[in-house]
Amino acid sequence: MVSSHWPLFDLRLSTPRLRLRVPTLEDLDALADVAVDGVHDPDVQPFAMPWTDAPPIERARGTLQYHWSQWAAWKPSAWVLNLVVEFDGTIVGTQGMTGKDFAVLREVSTGSWLGRRYQGQGIGTEMRAAVLHLAFAGLGAEHAVSAAFADNAASFAVSRKLGYEDNGIDRYVVRGRPVVCRRLRLDCARWQARRTVPVTVDGLAPCLPLFGLDDADAS
Which pTM was predicted? Predict the structure, then answer.
């Protein structure tokens, strides 16, 4: 146990190939190295906040600072759970899940990135499946939402595989140009019907109050 006062450090999600956890400082350093190595083709920008356009040293430091800032900002009514993804003993990316007024709304949103060298191996699907299991089976969520720019075929492939449905669009300005962002939504029934990845969650019970829940809420 890293801290008896912050049980999230003992939360673990496991799939057949992956381990997801709240990062240690060593994990964050490894994640920053992955960010420096590259997350996507430099000719495209898949993020509404274009953090990957920064020079490598700023990208690395920004990765650390972002995770630290979300730890400090955590509230049961507004939380962002960022997990590092370990594949074959190596940190390969990060999978996030956000809840606002979750105890009432029972809705989460997800976001992630994966080092470019690890893409195309089904890891993105498996890591999203892990947090969806945490949301629906562990926390009692009713809906999960996601979004991606219209040209992000890989992200949509993951979402379709897991059962998401279209949920409208937003528009952003990225690199000085308008882009269309497609929203997607997944309800608990469709998640149940489409789930194929076995997931194990350990260490959740002590964390429930940090999500604004108790044992009865999550069941």
Answer: 0.92
